[in-house]
Amino acid sequence: MAGHHHALTRRLLTLAGLAVGPVLVLGVFFVLPVSGMVALGFWPDGAFDPGGVLEVLARPRVHRVAWFTVWSASAATLLSVVLGMPAAFALHRLAIPGRRLVRAALLVPFVLPTVVVGVAFRELLGESGPLGFLGLDGTPVAIIAGLVFFNVAVVVRAVGAAWESLDPRPGEAAAALGATPWQVFRTVTLPALRPAVVGAASVVFLFCATAFGIVLTLGGVRYATVETEIYLLTTTLFDLQAAAALSVLQLLVVTVLLALAARLRAVPDPSAHRAVVRARGVRVPDVPAVAATGVLLLAVAAPIATLVAGSLQTTEGWGLDNYRALTTTGDDGALLVPVTEALVTSLRTAVDATWMALLFGLVVGIVVTRRSHTRTERRVRSVLDGFFMLPLGVSAVTLGFGFLITLDRPPVDLRDSALLVPIAQALVALPLVVRTIVPVLAGIDDRQRQAAASLGATPWRALLTVDLPALWKPLVAASGFAFAVSLGEFGATAFLARDERPTVPVVIFRLIGHPGEMNYGMALAASVVLAAATAVVVLAVERLRVPSVGAF
Amino acid sequence: MTTTALSLSDVTVAYDGVTAVDRVSLELPHGEVLAVLGPSGCGKSTLLRAVAGLEPLTEGRIRFAGEDVDHLPTHKRGFALMFQDGQLFAHLSVARNVGYALRLRRLGRAETASRVAELLELVGLTGYADRLPATLSGGERQRVALARALAVEPRLLLLDEPLSALDATLRERLAVDLRGILRAAGTTALMVTHDHDEAFTVADRLAVMRRGRLVQSGPIADVWAAPADEETALFLGYARVLTGADAARVLAAAGQPATASLAVRRSALVADEAGCLPGTVVSARATPDQVRLVVDVDGIGDLDAVAPLGSHHAPGERVSLRVDPSRVAPIPTG
């Protein structure tokens, strides 16, 4: 009967109506730039010529760069897991006083602007720094330390969340059968945690392999990863074809990694059926884990403390001169605008990027989480799901580069638009927003909406009654994250920010590259200001205690 | 003369070519309660969801009071749905849950409050208005869900295994209450359940579903007294189905004409010296109400039987059995 087909068709039409916006946005601001970049590599002069790409991939320097990317990311991932596991246990299973505060503190590095972290590590490891005697400045060790500093929080959060809701009874049963604590850990606890550990490790590897700001500030030209190499090739050497070739390579590798990570993750939805086990008191066997957590906390605090101390140092001892100088353009006219003006630009950009990422992420979340009635509908949804996750697979640098070469001419000419930077940043923040919202939306029992509908609530009203109460906290948290990401975003912004409208990370990078005592001091002060801003946002978000935050 | 409220004709629901509900036709008169009974996976819940407008029909039509409702979305059908686990809105108090639909209709504050109080009294939860769902027991939650569903005086109440999530004693008590509440409110209701006792307590009419099809339907006593086939009989709680000569012998002992098969309840055979079915006791087990026996009836084999409390029957002992004709049901087709 016609009426029956109508009902099914209507569902598909509603789905299409909801999806058309995000699909268009992603098409213009993601597919177009990325394909433009691919085209630049394979069709350099309008004709298909893959030889150029192959030539680039055969260069010895490219091999060196690729190898360095792989081994530094692997080492950093391994270290993050090794250092993160004891802290995940201590902070999620033991009743340590102030553990909530420590957990929040460990989350801060994850959202600190990469440039700031780079500056902080240089300050710590540099010749005149407290750890200067180690001679690590400018070595791969410094880069790996920086990467671990960032990503250890991911391991602590993801593994900690799994550990927190791990049923203790199988372990107790094993102990009752005569297993020692170590045997219990090895045979019961670790296998149960494996999905979370593997999931966290794959995400960390991805972050490390595509890290940009930190490698650029700590590695310079000598130690480059694929990501920084793309930047150097574009901005310094103007070898666009080589940059495109590397971008294509990275796109392929990262997509494969993401697909693997998605398969390995298989972490159950954190909001549904999450029984948190009561934390227990600290016992003697826990001492190493607690001590390791303390060391980790110190290691995380050291660069930040050095940064703050450095920013307060002036030629005549301690003082606020560096901060006062933020209203100037630095020595030798290092900058075109004062840092304070860049801060205003940063905040404005972040506001725009936040609402864009939020709106976009919300629609995407609703589209991919609604229950499907037919196979066709399910297939459409899963294709959309994959499509919307694509930005996760592309590095910020590639995205910025793609924007630069495709959105400067019709049909989409945004070269002079003030929205170009926020749009790019919103896309960078999108996966984080979606990952925060989707588990919550998926965790809402669809029968709640059905119950509301059967009581006479319109779909819109059902959304207000059922979804909104569960969603407002994750939404606020997601906007906080998007805001912090936007404040610190450097990879795409470095390409796209116009010289007279830089954001703070861009300004910091320019300051440390410009000789002059005052410039360096200003870079430190600006880093502290930016770090403080993001830390405040993230700590506020942390207070909301959204379960899915940071659990990738 | 009652009039037809809900009428289903050839209702079919298929997912991707797999038919969950296969050409089901049913009629439900105004003010009556119909229980759709069937094992899990038989399509009964899908049928209920189709009536609610949550599953699109592949074929057939659903009418209410003679009017087509197929094209109406759930929220316009005026059928309230109560779920197995209540699905209360966790962030709203009991009173706000119950008054939800009234607020949707923009009923005045005072009116809403008095109606909510009335409903809470009806379900026996006076004084619970300000509690949050998380602080309630399972039974209390179901009562709130019922009050919430009844608030708008739905023209049809849909109950999806309303008592299944509760423990046995509570379920029994609440089934009686549910019947009383539905009667008092004069509600027309469609309930799906897999529990024949629950169906028997609450409903006026019974429809038995199996593998997506309607096997039998009618007033509950009629279905009970004459199950359509062996599987239905076993599902309705009959202990065994006898066929051929065995059925004829038991029926003869009950003084009734022979049929192809006979469904026998556990309590259909009673140990009685005056009985005319002799046998040997295989086992005996005392329960709070009676002694349950398994008797090897001469020429038939093992059958269940009961004996009054206090009687002693040791295995191996000879015994005579009487047939209680109200506890057997002839099945016309073999």
Short description:
The complex is a heterodimer of chains A (552) and B (334). Chain A has 552 residues and is mainly α. Chain A is built from 22 helices and 4 strands.
Q: What features would you describe in this structure?
A:
The complex is a heterodimer of chains A (552) and B (334). In chain A, 73% of the residues lie in helices and 1% in strands. Chain A is mostly helical. Chain A folds into two domains: 14-43 and 321-547, MetI-like fold, CATH 1.10.3720.10; 61-312, MetI-like fold (Orthogonal Bundle), CATH 1.10.3720. In chain A, strands 1-2 form a two-stranded antiparallel ribbon. In chain A, strands 3-4 form a two-stranded antiparallel ribbon. The longest helix of chain A is centred in the N-terminal third of the chain and has 41 residues, at 2-42. Chain B has two domains: 4-234, P-loop containing nucleotide triphosphate hydrolases (Rossmann fold, 3-Layer(aba) Sandwich), CATH 3.40.50.300; 237-331, Nucleic acid-binding proteins (OB fold (Dihydrolipoamide Acetyltransferase, E2P), Beta Barrel), CATH 2.40.50. Helices cover 29% and strands 33% of the residues of chain B. Chain B contains eleven helices and 18 strands. Chain B has a six-stranded mixed sheet, with helices on both faces. In chain B, strands 13-17-14-15-16 form a five-stranded antiparallel sheet, with helices on one face. Chain B has a four-stranded antiparallel sheet with strand order 2-1-4-5, with helices on one face. Chain B is globular. Classes of the chains: A mainly alpha (552), B alpha+beta (334). Chains A and B meet through α1, α18 and α19 of A and α2, β6 and α4 of B.
